[in-house]
Amino acid sequence: MKTMIKILTQACICIAILATPITAEAKKKKFPDVSFDGLEKVERPKSKADAVYIQPGADLSGYKSIIVAEPQIAFRKYWKEDHNSGRMADRIDDKDMERMISRGKKLFIEQFTKTLTKKGYPVVHAPEGNVLVARAGILNLDVEAPDPNRTAGTWSKVYTEYAGSATLVIELYDSTSGQLLARAIDHKDDIGEQFGWYQDRTQFTNINDAREAFDSWARMLANGLDEAKKG
């Protein structure tokens, strides 16, 4: 278990360096053909991930179920300080961030469980020969209007075009051997996009937008596995 966490941490550091600062130009940056730990970049158009890496010789076609591990969530560096700059109200403190991370982890597991099951990959809790472990890291999380103290209907409103942005790094392991099999990286800079419209952001809209982002990433994973089965 410690080895898995160490590998994921190293991967997150590597991708964070690659994707910082995250801009449209940075998204187009070519990912290396071979990752720092020997995985090879492959094309998986249906997954729609920015990059997909596979362990040489790995066969994902036999896996039927998935264990969804608790994700790691990390805000963009100085996000809190940037948000609080010049503000007298709606300031963020460390406890607010802890609550947001805790809620985000819960929403991630709930939505991945719901979406993967619907896509034909039931979520289980015990390792077996045909079970994958999905370990995710959500990096550079940037929430436009975190809304720590208000809810919909109050006089103070914040309108933004997007709810925020984040980068997903998700790794797949064989549940019995612990072998790392694959890694996918995807960045979203338009979470909660309203097609050019600005929307009032509250705790409720932020939660809904997070669910939609997690649903999109879960479908990305399921589509990638479907494509792997076809060879």
UniProtKB/TrEMBL annotation:
Keyword Signal: yes
A Pfam family per the record: DUF3313
Annotated protein name in UniProt: DUF3313 domain-containing protein
Organism: Pelagicoccus mobilis
Matches recorded under InterPro entries: DUF3313
Stretch forming the signal peptide: 1-26
Keywords (A to Z) from UniProt: Signal
Tree of life domain: Bacteria
